[in-house]
From TrEMBL:
The reaction(s) this protein catalyses: fluoride(in) = fluoride(out)
Purpose of the protein: Fluoride channel required for the rapid expulsion of cytoplasmic fluoride.
Subcellular location as annotated: Cell membrane
Organism expressing this protein natively: Batrachochytrium dendrobatidis (strain JAM81 / FGSC 10211)
Name of the protein this chain belongs to: Fluoride ion transporter CrcB
Topology class, membrane: Multi-pass membrane protein
GO molecular function: fluoride transmembrane transporter activity
InterPro entries: FluC
Broad class of where this protein is predominantly found: membrane
Presence of keyword Repressor: no
Amino acid sequence: LVLCLIVYISGVGVVIAGVSTTSIAFTLLFSPFGTLIRYILSQYNGLYSTFPIGTFLVNVVGSMILIGIYILKTISVSGSVPCAVLVGLADGFCGCLTTISTFAMELSLLPVRSSYIYCLASICMSQFLGMLIAGTWAW
């Protein structure tokens, strides 16, 4: 956290990532909430030995939130602060809520058949719900 604050204060993030300091501030603000929710839901991973339900839920929910943010950014958000809030939610909250590293680790630890089921369920559910949300918006 201290390192994040140093990056924010120094403005290095603006130079390296090309994002505003306001976006960085909102990212830092929303990150702990994504981490906390991820930790709480990870407690449910032991319910089924062949399907990490907690990780499945955070990844699917995180994908849905990201789709909602994308839609909001494309249709109705104007001004630098509202955009910075959406960037903070996407990068901070969703970035900490969802991670590919945990997904990949769990795939490698599961039996092969369970790994395929978990992988396909995660990808298909996220894609299906994403198309449903985006399609409803576009329609």
